[in-house]
């Protein structure tokens, strides 16, 4: 099946594959960026995987937003 745009014929299967590939690339890039932010806040980067658990992701966002950040707590190493 083809989609005609002006003088061009685009295969719908190729177009849907391209859109799916871009969507996956954006999701993976976002996960790496969020993991880096979580690590800078002082938490383990694996906490990013909680975004795939429906209710737990909202609770984790609430905790990360309003809870104490390990990176902002002075540790014994800094002395």
Textual characterization of the structure:
The chain has one domain. It contains 2 helices and 2 strands. The protein has helices spanning 12-40, 54-66, and strands at 2-5, 8-11. The protein has a two-stranded antiparallel sheet. A hairpin with a 2-residue loop joins strand 1 and strand 2 (8-11). It is elongated and about 65 Å long. 1% of the residues are buried.
Q: In angstroms, what separates the terminal alpha carbons?
A: 68 Å
Neighbour order of strands in the largest sheet: 1-2
- Assign a percent range to the helix content: 40-55%
Shape assignment: elongated
State the oligomer.
Answer: single chain
Question: How many structurally independent domains?
Answer: 1
Discrete helix count: 2
| Structure classification | mainly alpha
Mean model confidence by pLDDT? 83
**Radius of gyration over all CA atoms, rounded:** 21 Å
The beta-strand count equals: 2
- What is the ordering of alpha helices and beta strands? EEHH
| Major sheet description | 2 strands, antiparallel
In the predicted model, the low-confidence regions spanning at least 5 consecutive residues are none
How much beta, percentage-wise?
5-15%
């Amino acid at each position: 099946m083809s989609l005609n745009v002006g003088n061009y014929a685009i295969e719908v299967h190729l177009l849907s594959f391209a859109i799916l590939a871009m969507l996956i690339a954006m999701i993976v890039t976002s996960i790496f960026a969020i993991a880096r932010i979580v690590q800078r806040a002082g938490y383990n980067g694996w906490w990013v995987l909680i975004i795939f658990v429906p209710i737990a992701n909202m609770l984790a966002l609430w905790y990360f937003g309003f809870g104490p950040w390990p990176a902002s707590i002075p540790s014994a190493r800094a002395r």
